[in-house]
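User: My instructor asked us to take a sequence, write out its structure as tokens, and then describe one feature of it. I'm not sure where to start. Here is the sequence I was given:
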Amino acid sequence: MSTILNVVSVEKYYGTKVNLKKALDRIQFSVNVGEFVSIMGPSGSGKTTLLNCISTIDSISAGHIYINNEDLAALPLEKMAAFRRNNLGFIFQDFNLLDTLSIEENIALPLSIKNIPAKEIQQSVQLLMQQLGITDIASKFPPQVSGGQKQRCACARAFINRPKLILADEPTGALDSVSTGQILTLLTELNRQEQATILMVTHDPLCASYGKRILFLKDGHLVKELHRGQMSRTDFYHAILSEISALGGEK
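Assistant: Let's start with the prediction itself. The structure tokens for your sequence are:
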């Protein structure tokens, strides 16, 4: 399997010399093409900081992050936006949709920015909306649809460019249990059918159990990896709960 993401001895500091906080401490792991990996840890463990560094939203203090063998630390600032646009897809807890654009226009936005021909954009958006079951709300605006529908729209927008890597930060945090199950099933299907590579931050063991591997962070350290292997999702969920208990539980 080819490696799409390689995180090498990454450190991240915040603050000044007199009040320095180490958010990430020599984090090291890799993700292969087509993997679905969950990142877990208590509040303040560094999981969102790590995702922000991988997404180029934040910069690292030391180490290297490679995406498709491209060293993000060596990437010129003027090339960063294009790299992000061409390689990464984002799904956020608060959806990050534009209320002034319709659902269809929100999904089409990444392609519009790239100056893709209108007919090609329409075909791609229609196909993806059909896949995600949101064709019937295409002309509606985000305030007019449910949280689950908004997140389906956000998933479609993240996937429309067929990015190398999808980064999801608590993608079900604002959803009810029914919508949560639908979104996680959707991500699983995108991962399985389209070989989408997904890295998802979550505090919820049930959400994490949809992945195939869990990275546990604590106090900025990567302290444990848990592989699903041949376990059922239910057994994996219980294994995750046991691991959280062994690590001291959520705080």
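For the description part of your assignment, you could build on this observation: The radius of gyration is 18 Å. Try explaining in your own words what that tells you about the chain.
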